[in-house]
Design a protein that fits this description.
globular; 6-stranded mixed sheet; 23% strand; 256 residues; alpha/beta; Rossmann fold; 8-stranded mixed sheet; single chain; 29% helix; Hypothetical Protein, Haloacid Dehalogenase-like Hydrolase, Chain: A, domain 2
Length: 256
């Protein structure tokens, strides 16, 4: 069996802790011979502490399904937004005061204003934050816009200009923009193929709309905690959030 997990709000609590009970259950499943992978929207530097805690060196994916790393550390896939599209999407917001953005390249955040307090959040710790300028020829892993007032408008703007790109509009004003085919579902399919696991033997756990393609591709999909209603409707079952040890309980009941 291949067990595929989202991180935030699936394995990791709202205060960014991976509970010991979940860690031990996942390690026990792996000791029983099951394969374990993580697919997260976080860039690699932000995902690394949890990957290390779980002892996962590969396979896994970061930036949703944009970068997929195999069991031996080789890169199975890398999708990026071309520099010309990066410049085209960001240049109109360089002077804006109601829109902040970041252009994420590896573990560097190229932003409109490096001093903006929004870049002090947990996902940016131990990462370089620098000022973005057009003409830097940056192929981006993803773009992140932030605007409480204009996020929906920004979403429509990106959709009109680049209908093939993936977009995740979150309720807190953040809009993530990714290259085409950088979703978790296709990443999970690639991981399963690489490890020789049939789709019917894959179980995927997630909570957000960015987990939808992963949960619906898997042979068995599990919605976790305060999951998006569309995900709950599509999943085979719905379990408790990480604060209540949902994944640990599921593994104990179904795997161990």
């Amino acid at each position: 069996m291949l067990l595929a997990f989202d991180l935030d709000k699936t394995l990791v609590t709202d205060d960014f802790t991976l509970p010991q009970a979940i860690e031990l259950a996942i390690r026990a499943a792996r000791d029983r011979g099951h394969l374990v992978t993580v697919l997260t929207g976080r860039p690699l530097a932000a995902a690394r502490p949890y990957l290390d805690q779980l002892g996962i060196t590969g396979p896994f994916s970061v930036n949703h399904g944009g970068q997929v790393i195999g069991v031996d550390g080789r890169e199975l896939r890398r999708r990026r937004i071309p520099a010309r599209d990066v410049d085209g999407l960001l240049e109109g917001h360089l002077g804006a005061t109601d829109v902040e953005f970041s252009c994420i390249v590896d573990d560097v955040l190229w932003v409109r204003d490096p001093d903006d307090g929004r870049w002090e959040w947990a996902h940016t710790r131990s990462r370089r934050v620098d000022r973005f300028r057009t003409g830097m020829a940056l192929d981006a892993d993803k773009l992140v816009f932030y605007s409480q007032q204009r996020s929906t408008e920004l979403d429509r703007e990106v959709a009109a200009r680049h209908p093939d790109m993936l977009r995740y509009l979150w309720g807190d004003g953040f809009l993530e923009v990714l290259p085409a085919q950088a979703d978790k579902g296709s990443a999970l399919a690639l991981i399963a193929e690489d490890r020789g696991v049939p789709r019917s033997d894959v179980v995927a756990f997630g909570d957000g709309l960015n987990d939808f393609t992963m949960v619906t591709w898997a042979g068995h999909g599990v919605a976790v905690g305060d999951a998006h209603p569309n995900l709950v409707a599509a999943a085979a079952e719905h379990i408790a959030p990480p604060e209540q040890g949902g994944v640990a309980s599921w593994i104990e009941a179904n795997v161990l």
